[in-house]
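Aggregate trends can hide what the representation actually does to any particular protein. For completeness, the protein is quoted in full, as a sequence line and a line of structure tokens.
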Amino acid sequence: MARTITAAVLAELTKGTVYPIVLVEVEFSSGTINVWSGNGNLSWDSKTWTGVGELGKVSAIKETSEVRADNFVLELSGIPSDLVGKALDEVRYGKPATVYQGFLTKAGVMIVDPFIVAKGFTDRAELEEGGESATIRVNCENDLAALQRPNERRYTPEDQKDEFPGDLGFDFVPALQERKLVWGKGEAFPPGSGAGCVLEGTEIVPLTHSMSVTSEQNHSWIEIELADGRRLTATPNHPIYTDRGKIALESLQLGDAVVTDIGIVALTRTQPLQKPARKLIVSMKHGHLFWANGILSHNVKKAPRRL
């Protein structure tokens, strides 16, 4: 572990007389406890550290040039027998534990700042009972112990939502198991069509070139909704781009990955509608691509009168 020794500590060390101390910070079920190896209270880091004197011990801190997780042990003796049960109940697995090395001047003043010599997490507690008192030893795992644990991630919707609530990405994994993915024109789009129109009021943004728009009355629609909440209502043969290529709305399948202005977003709902409304017919001489409510769409092939 790298050491960060302050200039104040180095200056006192050169004077020849300093008094080493050990500070320990451990989180228990009732809160964080701060103790040090001397007597009385000590103030540092905006915290009060309680002196445990010879009742507290820290095992030897092992260090090697290898990447290895060496544990350390915290020990507290002199615990009254009637408080042993409560003391053991305070220890919780996986709580942070930190050991600091510090120094005092001849006058007993803290030389700022102590540095970390060991850091890890509480593992298990052991009890050694005597006549009227007991000793508790808390084994602590080094941070590197996490590298030795197997990865228990299951890559399921439930597992994903534990860390990212509301993320729907893994909800569509089962539908992809037997899915045939085609990038390009797409088999599900009717050959030679290319026609398609969106509901009046749809936000239309051409990718590169200017566009022409006309409108007509229409009754048959399909409304789709994506995982991010955006919706698009258009004619059943309106083509959009997905992970399977260019697909008409009527041929979409739940779980299709739809190309949007923020990236790939999963299709979560498709619903046929029957209502009288005007459709917008978009055409461009070149490019043929536009965003319809942020969803990548293809225009009709023959340009109508420009508005």
Summary: The first helix runs from residue 7 to 15. Confidence is low (pLDDT under 50) at residues 185-194, 302-307. The longest strand covers residues 263-283. The chain has two domains: 7-148, 198-298.
